[in-house]
From TrEMBL:
<protein>
    <recommendedName>
        <fullName>Putative manganese efflux pump MntP</fullName>
    </recommendedName>
</protein>
<keyword id="KW-0813">Transport</keyword>
<dbReference type="InterPro" id="IPR022929">
    <property type="entry name" value="Put_MntP"/>
</dbReference>
<keyword id="KW-0812">Transmembrane</keyword>
<comment type="similarity">
    <text>Belongs to the MntP (TC 9.B.29) family.</text>
</comment>
<feature type="transmembrane region" description="Helical">
    <location>
        <begin position="133"/>
        <end position="152"/>
    </location>
</feature>
<dbReference type="Pfam" id="PF02659">
    <property type="entry name" value="Mntp"/>
</dbReference>
<keyword id="KW-1003">Cell membrane</keyword>
<dbReference type="InterPro" id="IPR003810">
    <property type="entry name" value="Mntp/YtaF"/>
</dbReference>
<feature type="transmembrane region" description="Helical">
    <location>
        <begin position="70"/>
        <end position="86"/>
    </location>
</feature>
<feature type="transmembrane region" description="Helical">
    <location>
        <begin position="164"/>
        <end position="181"/>
    </location>
</feature>
<feature type="transmembrane region" description="Helical">
    <location>
        <begin position="39"/>
        <end position="58"/>
    </location>
</feature>
<keyword id="KW-0472">Membrane</keyword>
<keyword id="KW-1133">Transmembrane helix</keyword>
<keyword id="KW-0406">Ion transport</keyword>
<feature type="transmembrane region" description="Helical">
    <location>
        <begin position="107"/>
        <end position="127"/>
    </location>
</feature>
<keyword id="KW-0464">Manganese</keyword>
């Protein structure tokens, strides 16, 4: 597999993580280099580790992973998105919401939800005899860079939505979940 192919695949795999990073950038009040790096590091590590796990699992569990990965992603992203919307709606004054919560648990859940596709890609590499460690490293680095930029972009965009950033962010997470589901099943597009 050529470097350009690996780079383009890494870019495609990082798109969900990039969108979620942008959402975090929108909803956190205080964004600095350290916070942007922390978010990007979580997404980059998980995107890099998941192909390795998939590669090690290989052919044995491929059919199981591919049948449920999109449902797991929809559930995790939908749950966090709904939680964000409900927290914003249940607060009487959106001005008083603290967007500065950056919990490790939430970052882990978001990282898993956005990297399940990378796990499935790793399973396919078990059959292709590709250098999995260099591919996983490229995926991790590309994801880190895109997510770092996504947080900063989200910070810029977040000021447009002001107090409604948490609601908009929750809606975006839910839509990403449905997009992942639709990409695997075509359920949504089959209705139109």
């Amino acid at each position: 597999m050529s470097f350009i192919s690996v780079f383009l695949m890494s870019f495609a795999l990082a798109m969900d993580a990039f969108a979620v990073s942008m959402t975090k950038g929108m909803t956190l009040r205080k964004i600095n280099f350290s916070i942007a790096s922390k978010i990007a590091l979580f997404f980059g590590i998980f995107q890099g580790i998941m192909p390795l796990i998939g590669w090690f699992i290989g052919i044995r569990f491929e059919s199981y992973i591919k049948t449920v990965d999109h449902w797991i992603a929809l559930f995790l992203l939908g749950f966090i998105g709904l939680k964000m919307i409900l927290e914003a709606k249940n607060d009487n004054s959106l001005d008083d919401i603290s967007y500065d919560k950056l919990g490790i648990k939430e970052l882990i859940v978001l990282s898993i939800a956005t990297s399940i596709d990378a796990l499935a890609v790793g399973v396919s590499f078990a059959f292709l005899n590709e250098p999995i460690f260099s591919i996983s490293s490229t995926i991790a680095i590309v994801t880190f860079i895109l997510c770092f930029l996504g947080v900063l972009l989200g910070k810029s965009i977040g000021s447009l939505f002001k107090n409604y950033a948490q609601i908009v962010g929750g809606i975006i997470l839910i839509l990403i979940g449905f997009n992942i589901l639709n990409g695997h099943t075509g359920i949504i597009t089959s209705f139109f």
